[in-house]
Amino acid sequence: MSEGAAKKEEKPRKFQAIRGTRDLLPPETALWNRVEQTAHEVFATFGFGEIRLPIFEQTELFARSIGADTDVVSKEMYTFEDHDLHDLNLRRSRSITDIELFTEPTNVGIILPYAKHFLTEAKQELTAGKLPRTPSNEFLLARIESDLEYLATVTDATPRDAFRDRRSELRRNMQALELGPVISLRPEVTASVCRAYIEHNMHRRERPQKGRYRQFYQIDAEVLGGTDAPAIDAEVIEMVMTFFERLGLEGVQLHINSIGDKKCRPKYVELLRAELSKVKDRLGADSQRRIETNPLRVLDSKLESEQKLIERMPHIADHLCEECAENYRGVKKELELRGVKYRENWRLVRGLDYYMRTTFEITAKGLGSQNAVCGGGRYDGLVELLGGPPTKGIGFAIGEDRLILSLQESARAHPGDSGSPLATRHSPLLYIAWMGEKAYTTAIRAAKNLRNAGFRVELPPLEQKFGKALGQADKLGARFALILGDNEVTSGQWTLKTLADGKQEKLRESDLVEHLKKQL
Ligand code: AMP
Questions:
Q1: How far is Cα 403 from Cα 211, in angstroms, rounded to an integer?
Q2: Which ligand 1 atom sits closest to the C-alpha of 398?
C-alpha cells in the first residue's frame, strides 16, 4: 500500500483529557484569577512573598518528608526514571528478551554475550558518573555479575529450579538498576523560604470524583524558621481565614487539634495501637494494616462501620506532655484574641508523617464528601529530616479547585449578587464596525489605543456591512460600537453608538478614550 493510501485509511483519532484532569476555560478562569489575586493581596499584608518551584523533584524527597506509608507516596505519585542512557537502556531491553528465551541450559549462549556487554557498559557508565552511584545500584551490579557467572556454568545436570530461579533473579536485578535519578511530579509542596507562598499544580493518582482530581491546584503558605510561639500558628490560621472571608466563602469551619511531639506522641500511638488491636477483627482491611504501620491514620477513616469503634478510642489531648498541652492552650488563646472561631476535633491527625503539635483543617459548603478546602499544621522536624538544620515550620495548603467549586455553589444559590466573586468585572466590550481599506487602518490604530487604555475591544478580521456588524456587536453583548467608514476617516469625526439605547455621538479620535472612561 502506498503511503498516501495508508494515510487515507487512518481514521482521525479523538483525543480525550487524561482521567482526573480537565481544561479550565473562560469565563471560569476569571474566577480563578480573582481568587489568586486576592491571595496575593491578603498574603502580602501578612508579609508573605511568592516563590515558584519546579514541578518535579527526587522521589526520595517525598518519600522521606511525606512518609513512605502514606497513600500519597505508596500509591498516588507519578514517578519515572529520568535518564540519558538511551543506548544502555536499549541494551538492557535486548538482554532481558534474551533472558526470556533462555529456557534450556544449552541456550546459555543466547544470553551471555548481550547481558555481559550490558554489564560492562553499565560499569563504565558508573565510573563515568552517568549511572547513579547509589548503594542499590552498586549492589545490583555485583549481583548481576554473580548471576552471570553462575549461569555460565549451568549444564543439563543443573537442577531446573535452581537455574530458573537464578535466571529470574538476573532479570529482576537488571530491571531494578536505576539508569538515572528517580523523580516524581510534585504531589505536595513545602516551601523553603521564611514566610513564602506558592501557587502550584499538583499530581496525585487518586480515584477522581467531585473535588478530587489527578491534576489539581493548591495555594500553599508557610513560615519557616524563627520561633514556634503559639502566636505564629494563630497568625497563619488567621491569614487563611481572612483570605476566605475576603472571597465570601460560605460555611467556613475551622477544625483544630494538637498531635503532640516526639516526646509524647509515641506513647499515645502505642496506647492507640493497643486499643485498636483489641477491636482489630471488627475493623476494615485498611485500618487493620494501619494498626501496624501508622495507627494515627485509622482516626482518619471515613468507613461507616468503624465510626463507633473509633469514637471510643483515647483522645490525644489527654496524653500530651506538659509543653505540648501548654502550647495547645496558647494556640487556642491566640486564636480567640484574633476573633478566629474554631472547633476542636481530636481525630484530626492529618495524613502526613511530618506534622507535630498544631494541626488544622478548614471545610466549606457545597462540596459533598471532599469538603476540606485547606489543611495544615506545624512540622518543626521536617527540615532536619531532609538534612538541614533544626528549623521550626508551620504551613497550610488550600485546595484551589475545591475553593472555586464552593464559591460557584454559593453563587448559584444567590444569583444576581453583584458582590459575589462570580460577578464579572470585565470592562464593557467595544465593537469596531469598519468598512473600507482606509477605515481598516484607522480601526487597527483605534483598537491598539483602546486596548492600551484597558478597554476590551473586538476588531472583526473581515469587512462587514454596517448592519451586520452592529448585529454582531449586539450578539456579543457589546456596550458600544465604534463606527468607522469613509466619512469618519475623512472628517476625523468618529461615530460612537451606545447599543442599549441606539444613541450616536460624533467624537474626535483624541477625545475617545477620555469620553469612554467617563461613561464607566
Ligand atoms: P493535603 O496536601 O493532602 O493536605 O491537601 C491539602 C488540600 O488540597 C486539601 O484540603 C484539598 O483541598 C486539596 N486536595 C488534596 N488532594 C486533592 C485532589 N486530588 N484534588 C483536588 N484537591 C485536592
A1: 9
A2: 7
